[in-house]
Amino acid sequence: MRRIEIYDTTLRDGAQGEGISFSTYDKLMITRRLDELGFDYIEGGYPASNEKDCEYFQKVRDLNLRTARIVAFGMTRRKNTDVKDDVGLRALLEAGTSMVTIVGKASAFQAEEVLRTTREENLRMIAETIEYLRSHGREVIFDAEHFFDGYKYDADYALTAVRVAAEAGARTVVLCDTNGGSLPNEIAEMTRKVVDILPVPVGIHCHNDSDVAVANSLAAVDAGATHVQGTINGFGERCGNADLISVVANLRLKKGYDVLLPESLRHLTALSRFVYETVNMPYRNNQPYVGRGAFAHKGGMHVSGVNRTPGSYEHIDPQLVGNERRILVSELSGRSNIMAATAKLNIQADPKILERILAKVVSREHAGYQYEAAQGSFDLLVKQCLGTFKPHFERLAYRVNIETESDGRIVTEATVKIRVGNEVRHEVAEGDGPVNALDAAMRKALNGTYPSLASMQLVDYKVRVINSEAGTAAGVRVMIESRDETDSWGTVGVSENIIEASWIALTDSYEYKLCKDEERKAQTKESSNHVPERVTA
After folding, report:
1. Using the 8-state DSSP alphabet, how is residue 313 labeled?
2. Distance between CA atoms of 480 and 506, rounded to whole angstroms?
3. Which of 38, 382, 420, 431 could form a disulfide with 437 if both were Cys (CB 3.0 to 4.6 A apart)?
4. Model pTM?
């Protein structure tokens, strides 16, 4: 098992992705999580670019890291400038890291057309920068920018550039597919050439513009590279970087390389979602290994197969990467889907019951409902089919009023009238919008009887038109995600009126929460009543 170094650049290269921004606190928390999983290097940022990165390098010193080395990123000295006078190199030294990464041009075209300098001066910039940092006690990783495109343009110059970096004292030379345009066979061939001529370790840094960044990284490792750079979830400029989640999982599970810590793979899903949450971005549902849909099965034949033998439609056990199998329920479902999806409800496999549930699902989906991401509404539907659902409240009426005042402020007010037991409750509340106002009014009406609702939060709200050909009269599907201190669940509502669709999804959220709490309370009570008999001598 050859050891492969994993170098994370989420905090620097990943932050260049559209819509991604990290606070200093975000960067420190991500650093801690990466260290816990055994990442070898964490590139913290570019200290010459902004005050936030400078602050990070100061504060990260206080973290008691056990595996990762923090790396500061910078560029070769400016052309025709003495290394001692280069402000970027000065900032690198002031960052105080024992290791730095320097990016320099490995392409004659880039040196002449972008830097507007000579080929010879570019090579001096590489050598003098590395030597200067080495003289100040720093270990240096050299990122050979545009190496693969440079090799295609002028192979001799590209090889000379990486050789100069190694001779100047670079600890590792990293070959960069900066434009993301190379393919795995090209990456393998050129990487193998560099591995054969350099006396230092070779790394790989791929961008995903051709959708093969992970494949290119694996090809480079098979060709002799021992260091892989990338980002969590593939964040990065344009189409992103190589996704280290997939890189790490493939290297260990598929190819047997030694990466990170042995127990780290089981935390990959949690790491991926933690980073998404940190930057306030939705999960990529079909992301390999860690996406919510990575081990989701919808077709009846697929579900039947994985119920018998998981390997029939799964390439690995999802638990190996901390994920889980999900059985989706839709109009494409068969009995196998229903059986699997209702397993936790302890429903006996009665064909008549399963057919009743399946028929209800098909009918509701024909009307525009979708239960794949609405487990809460699906569980309530099953209880209704079984005749075990007892509503906790009854809707009598609701009204939403939206007004604009003279200063342009929008005021939204909701009134709800419901029956709880034998009592009719009539409440009014304002909100930031119609759904928020309805939620506030419903909580006023219910919290006295059901205090556990105080722990429930609405965390996501989505609307989708389901028959766009109807124009403004089209039906809409509203999906709401809710959570409490232990779980999260989705609910769905459909109507030609967006407020009514929202009401259906919203009230399903309350009902699911209340049913769940009652079942948990009943299980706890049953466990506490079960007292083992005392054994006497």
Report:
1. T
2. 7
3. 431
4. 0.71
> Residues 6 or more apart from 447 whose CB is under 8 A from it?
453, 454
Q: Which residue in this structure is represented by tokens 């970087």?
A: 241
User: Which residue has tokens 């106002």?
Assistant: 437
> What is the identity of the amino acid at 169?
G
Tokens encoding 137: 């006690």
Strands (E), 380-487: 394-404, 410-420, 423-431, 457-465, 476-483
- E strand or H helix that includes residue 139: strand 139-145
Could you read off the pLDDT tens digit of each residue along the chain, which spans 537 residues?
Answer: 799 999 999 999 999 999 999 999 999 999 999 999 999 999 999 998 888 899 999 999 999 999 999 999 999 999 999 999 999 999 999 999 999 999 999 999 999 999 999 999 999 999 999 999 999 999 999 999 999 999 999 999 999 999 999 999 999 999 999 999 999 999 999 999 999 999 999 999 999 999 999 999 999 999 999 999 999 999 999 999 999 999 999 999 999 999 999 899 999 999 998 898 888 787 898 999 999 889 887 766 676 677 677 778 889 999 999 998 876 665 445 555 565 555 655 565 667 777 788 788 878 878 888 886 788 998 899 888 888 899 999 999 999 999 988 888 899 999 999 999 999 999 999 999 999 999 999 999 998 899 999 999 988 888 888 876 655 557 889 999 999 888 888 899 999 999 999 999 999 999 999 999 998 888 777 666 655 554 443
